[in-house]
Amino acid sequence: QVRLTESGGGSVQTGGSLTLSCTLDTYGSLNVAWFRQAPGKEREVIASLLTGDGTSFYGDSMKGRFTIFQGDANNKVDLQLNNLETEDTGRYYCANCIFQRLRTPRVDECAYWGRGTPVTVSS
Predict the structure, then answer these.
(1) 76 contacts 21 by C-beta, under 8 angstroms
(2) Pairing of strands 44-50, 31-37
(3) How open is the CA angle 18-45-50, to the nearest 5 degrees?
(4) What sign results for the dihedral spanned by CA atoms 98, 104, 71, 19?
(5) Which of 60, 79, 116, 123 is paired with 34 by a 20 to 30 Å CA distance?
(6) Exposure string (b/e) for 89-112, b if CB count within 10 Å is 16 or more?
(7) How far is CA 51 from CA 74, 92, 93, 104, in A?
(8) Taking a C-beta distance cutoff of 8 angstroms, is the pair 109, 98 a contact?
(9) HEC states along the chain?
(10) CB-based contact 120:104 (threshold 8 Å)
(11) Handedness of CA 28, 45, 41, 80 (dihedral sign)
(12) What's the CA gap between 55 and 92, in Å, rounded?
């Protein structure tokens, strides 16, 4: 079992930035993905990163404003959110997922999830 804890969410105005952090309770090579879920919508993948290796993938239309990277410790995977828009409002989750070559994981390919951290973007 892997425990994940998200932090860094908050309220910002449009155009603002946030850095979200996902802390795992274990070390080693793991595939960690960030997802988000807006009110009334399905959970969608933002990006994934294989820790220790650095291989990353992005969901459709997610690359550009969002960047996934290894945090300041081997058990952290961070997500930089830039130029935020009101449509980015939602709850952001990190998860430990099966590694897939050439693509981000689906929701059903992730066994362990954090509780999420809220992001609210207002105009």
Answers:
(1) yes
(2) antiparallel
(3) 85
(4) negative
(5) 123
(6) bbbbbbbbbebeeeebbebebbeb
(7) 7, 19, 17, 14
(8) yes
(9) CCCEEEECCEEEECCCCEEEEEEECCCCCCEEEEEEECCCCCCEEEEEEECCCCCEEECCCCECCEEEEECCCCCEEEEEECCCCHHHCEEEEEEEECCCCCCCCCHHHEEEECCCEEEEEEC
(10) no
(11) positive
(12) 21
Number of residues that this document lists for the chain: 123
